[in-house]
Amino acid sequence: MTPPSRTAHRAAAACLVAVAAVTTACSGGSSDDSSASGGSATSAEAPRAAAVEEDGAVLDQAGTAFTANKAEAPEGPDRKVISTGNVALRADDVAKARFDVQEVVDEHGGEVAEERTATDDDGEVERSRLVLRVPSARFDEAVESLTGVAELVDASTTSEDVTTQVLDVDIRVRVQRRSIARIELLLDRAESIRDIVAIEAQLSRRQAALASLEKQQDYLADQTSMSTITVSLERTPKARTVAEEDDDSGFLSGLAAGWDGLSATTVAAATVVGALLPFAAVALLVAVPAWPLLRRLRRRRLAAE
User: How are the residues of the chain apportioned to helix, strand and coil, as percentages rounded to the nearest 5?
Assistant: First the structure.
């Protein structure tokens, strides 16, 4: 029977080897630590030489999950595609066209994510820009329906297959979560302060990497489930008639120019009169009481002569 003290020493040694293996696998296994640990260096190099394989993925010496053999993009409905579209339309009544666009969005189970509308001096809608989100499965139908809302100016669509990227991120997330679970288990078994600090540092690093991967996963899920369509609406410019074009150099054009000149002259004369009127009023106030005095002085001069 093995003595109790010997069994405890073996358990402590096994725990230290496991901690060293995890720390080396997470941090890349610095050569200084390996040389300082002496006989445990050989055990610490083991996880670096042979990575752990899980669900078609492995963990490298830095603890980052990556696909050993990248899965090829599946065909058919399992493909993940990010689709975007741009539709430019013209309409005599932009407000009505905007209402028709909303009907198309509702029909295809989408939503208006962003909208900017401009009006003219009379308060009528002159142009509008809408950013639509529609289910990816109905993207082509929605674009086709939008092109029939009003006069089509331009339409374009782009699609990017991100199936491999989605699979890769999903695998990374699963492997990172399992790695964190194993590190948490080692943290519960650690006894020395040094081991606890080392394991907690690696745990924080793994958790930060997992949070970043989960954000990528959510973004890809949103972009592949809902497609984006940008719709631009503008008012159809009014066509000029032949009579209006002839009037530019005919009688009506000359009459309009003459009237504009007369109006400008009248405005200028009125401006001058308005500027002189205060001076005239002051002169009148001075001249009215002074005029009888001037006449009396003139009579006295004549009488004296």
Answer: 65, 20, 15
- 105 and 95 within one domain: yes
Domain residue limits at 200: 4-71+164-212
In this structure, are 51 and 154 located in the same domain? no
> Cβ(216)–Cβ(45) under 8 Å?
no
- Token pair recorded at residue 66: 């990556």
Where do the H-state alpha helices sit in 148-250?
A: 163-189, 193-225, 242-247
Q: What does the pLDDT look like over 93-126, one tens digit per residue?
A: 999 999 999 999 999 999 999 999 988 888 888 8
Q: Where are the alpha helices (DSSP H) in the chain?
A: 4-27, 31-37, 41-49, 94-107, 139-147, 163-189, 193-225, 242-247, 251-304
Tokens encoding 38: 């002496």
Q: Is residue 171 part of a domain?
A: yes
CA torsion sign for 96, 98, 104, 106 is: negative
Question: 160: how many CB neighbours lie within 10 A of its CB?
Answer: 12
